[in-house]
Design goal:
This protein is α/β, with parallel strands linked by helices. A seven-stranded mixed β-sheet has the order 2-1-5-4-3-6-7, with helices on one face.
């Protein structure tokens, strides 16, 4: 009986290690593919708060774009939204998309609390669970992606970033 265990346990361990290595390799390849794809703005589909589809074709032409993953309960995201409203004169030339996987009611309250509906260049969108990761390869909140008017990636940030830092990277129109 002990001999059987001595043979089976190493085989199981080798099998588990091989499976884990394969999983890691698959995830690394998937992440590299997503990162390469986001060098130009991916073809995405999120929903407006009214439930309408919102895709790349809805974007205004000739404007630099900021896409930000947020959550209404995230203190850093709340700071970003508050600053967006307070410093709106800095970011008017650019289009902003705030994307969240939160519940519709939370997004409505968030929009109302931080005055996002009053900002004509800011669009708050709803994503399905895991959808933002599928397009942009991150779940860190907030995450910010800056694109020029040709939808080429300028830079991205993981975590909170000041509006002034974002705006200095965006090309003047």
């Amino acid at each position: 009986m002990k001999r059987t265990y001595r043979k089976i346990i190493p085989i199981l361990l080798i099998g588990i290690i091989a499976w884990m290595a394969w999983q890691i390799r698959t995830q690394v390849r998937q992440k590299a593919t997503i990162e390469a794809a986001r060098e130009t703005l991916p073809a995405f589909e999120f929903s407006t708060l009214a439930g309408e589809p919102y895709t790349r074709s809805h974007l205004p032409h000739g404007k630099a774009l900021v896409i930000m993953l947020i959550h209404p309960e995230c203190p850093h995201c709340q700071y970003e939204a508050k600053t967006l409203y307070q410093k709106r004169e800095l970011h008017l030339p650019f289009h902003w998309i705030l994307v969240s996987e939160a519940a519709h009611s939370q997004l409505e309250e968030f929009s109302h609390t931080y005055g996002l509906k009053a900002l004509e260049n800011v669009q708050l969108l709803k994503a399905d669970l895991g959808q933002f990761y599928q397009y942009f390869g991150t779940e860190v909140m907030p995450s910010t992606f800056l694109y020029d008017s040709q939808y080429k990636l300028i830079t991205d940030y993981k975590g909170e970033v000041k509006i002034e830092a974002i705006v200095k990277h965006l090309p003047a129109i």
